[in-house]
Amino acid sequence: MCQALSLSRATIDYKMSNFASPEHNYHTVRAYPPPSTGRGTEYYDVVVVGAGAAGLMCAVEAGKRGRRVLVLEHADRVGKKILISGGGRCNFTNLSAIPADYRSENPYFCISALTRYTPQDFIYLVEKHRIVYHEKKLGQLFCNGASQEIVRMLFTECEKAGVTIKTSCKVLSVHCDNVFSTHTNLGWVISDKLVMATGGPSIPQMGSTRFSHEIASQFGLKVTTMRPGLVPFIFKGSDLEFCRRLAGLSIPCRVACNGVSFDENLLFTHQGISGPAILQISSYWTEKKAIYVDLLPRLDLAVHLKEQKDYRPKAELATILSSLLPRNFVRAMCETYLPNRTISTLTIKDLDAIVEILKAWTLIPSGTEGYRKAEVTLGGVDTTDLSSKTMEAVRVAGLFFIGEAVDVTGPLGGYNFQWAWASGYCAGQYV
């Protein structure tokens, strides 16, 4: 078991020259790290690897408890995923987030953390820092300003809690013999507790890696099968040509797969389809499975078409459908899938077939755009090896995993940030 080292504090100013963009000047963190041994080794109570949402929240909470905390970030600034989230406005939580919304091989694991740190708890923190926000839709909360406000808030809280942050600091190896020895490009760090908060491999262009999962495996923890989540679909052949023809067009719809459905927008792209509905259903899709698109989920199309046949017998199908769906989409559908004839010439069997196509349009993706475009990673450190109360490894005292690194994934719309805040908060009470 890794035991705490008793060391006196020495006050220093840590210069974080690479934290913020040039227009912001948040460079100095007042911290209280222990003295060096003189051999390039530093001692802390807690080392947090990863300065993202979960890692910074954990660091803040541990610092509030008087723990000497060091955060190591391999990128040149903290919170890079926070900065790009929500189109630059950070969808920082969801009012509706509850444990039942999350996916995991153990769906009960997340209950403890999410009930102890709720969306209202994070909203209180946001309001304390006078960050103006709004609800966009479906409980999704966004900053009125920029995502930078959330990063600044967390940075300020780290400063108040006496947390030391080192950017451009790459962890080379981790060892444990009574204490954790973390070897970085800036030297060695010894700590009682080690928190892995480096997320998953989604959006690798932001520096994401599998490092937390490598450390988990190193210490004997299981890692569940991982794959990209909240990710666009790609197609080949004629389906791809159809999508490219409509690239940029967004249509409200209901998308279903494997017994799950979402009502949101579908977006055609040059690679296939994306948009909120598609990103949501992608987390439930498996290879070679079909997805089913209801293009008119709030309309009894069969009744509508039969009425139109009685009242507008000379109207073409494309004309009737163009009052319900975008004209260019209808044109493409009529040239590819639907008979564009006057509705009076269409039999009941024809109308039933049209209804089937528009209410259950069947598409089989050839794959996804992968981690490069995935917003999250499905899977991660197996929750059977972690305490749901503390996030600590069951068989490795002092080792914690939080955030996206863990096999807990929420839907689109602020849910994954809420898991990051909650898991980081809970770990911060025990490290």
What does it look like?
This protein is an alpha+beta fold. It folds into 2 domains: 12-227 and 377-428, FAD/NAD(P)-binding domain (3-Layer(bba) Sandwich); 232-369, Elongation Factor Tu (Ef-tu), domain 3 (Beta Barrel). Helix content is 29%, strand content 23%. It is built from 13 helices and 21 strands. The protein has helices at 53-64, 80-84, 111-116, 119-128, 148-160, 211-218, 237-245, 276-282, 301-311, 317-322, 327-336, 348-359, 415-428; strands at residues 12-15, 28-31, 41-49, 69-72, 91-94, 133-135, 140-143, 164-166, 171-177, 179-184, 187-196, 227-229, 233-234, 250-257, 260-268, 272-274, 291-294, 361-363, 367-368, 376-378, 399-401. Strands 3, 4, 8, 9, 10, 11 and 21 form a 7-stranded mixed sheet that branches. A hairpin with a 4-residue loop joins strand 6 (133-135) and strand 7. The model is unreliable at 1-38 (pLDDT under 50).
